[in-house]
Write a structure and sequence with these properties.
Blueprint lengths: L1 H14 L8 E7 L2 E3 L2 E4 L3 E7 L10 E4 L17 E6 L3 E6 L9 E6 L2
Parallel strand pairs: 1-4, 3-8
Antiparallel strand pairs: 1-2, 4-6, 5-7, 7-8
Length: 114
C-alpha cells in the first residue's frame, strides 16, 4: 500500500518535467553562413532568422529535414534587413540550408529539447 501511494505522489513531478520555457532566439543570415551554425532550444521556442547588413547576396532558409510530422518550409529569398520567424513545436533535430549557397555548405542545425 505504501509503495503504491509513493508512486502516485511521485507521478506528478515526473509528468511535469520539461526542459524549460520557450525561448526567443535569433539566427543571423550573412553572406554564405548562418550564425550560430548549431543551436539548442526548448520546445515551442521562436526562432527569428535575420539577414544582416553583411548579407549583400540573396539567401533563404529551407527546412530539409525535421522531426516526423513537421511540415517542411522555405522562406522567400531575402537580403539585408529581411527577417523570418518560426516557432518550433516538436522536439527533435531540424536541418536547414540556403538553396542559393548549398555548394558553399551554408547549413545549420537546431535541436529542440522536450
Amino acid at each position: 500500500m505504501l509503495a503504491g501511494a509513493a508512486a502516485i505522489v511521485a507521478a506528478p513531478a515526473v509528468a511535469g518535467t520539461h526542459s524549460g520555457k520557450p525561448q526567443k532566439k535569433t539566427v543571423n543570415v550573412a553572406d554564405n553562413y548562418y550564425s550560430p551554425k548549431k543551436l539548442t532550444v526548448n520546445l515551442r521556442s521562436r526562432i527569428t532568422w535575420k539577414w544582416t547588413e553583411e548579407a549583400a547576396d540573396v539567401h533563404d532558409v529551407k527546412l530539409v529535414s525535421g522531426p516526423k510530422g513537421v511540415k517542411k518550409f522555405q522562406t522567400e529569398p531575402g537580403s539585408a534587413g529581411f527577417t523570418y520567424s518560426k516557432t518550433l513545436s516538436k522536439p527533435g533535430t531540424y536541418k536547414f540550408l540556403c538553396t542559393f549557397h548549398e555548394e558553399d555548405n551554408m547549413r545549420m542545425t537546431i535541436v529542440v529539447r522536450h
